[in-house]
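Quick one:
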Amino acid sequence: MTTFRQQVEVGPRDGSRYQPVIALVDTASTYAVMPSPMLSMLGIDPYWNGVLEGSDGGSEERSLAEIRLKIGDAERTVVCVFGQPDSQPVLGSHTLQAFGLAVDPSSNALTQARVFLA
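Output:
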């Protein structure tokens, strides 16, 4: 598991506004996770609930939505988990794949990933 921090911008799917955030890049996580009060402030409502497994092996039902995310000049719509009010923003592996990014563990930085057709 590799972790480091990355500046991103988070907004609703329509891209009408954005909030800058310093997020933890965590390849052990699947989706993006953002504090629920920040998502609510941006007008992002939960679209569905899912059962997610925690790092402790337990599972819990959480609210999810699609958000608009900017990393550098690139923008994508990605799946986001509504985190606890005090949770650290996280970029998971699904989010990185949506941007075609990978982690360079030697420099703790994002880099272009090799993307395969089939």
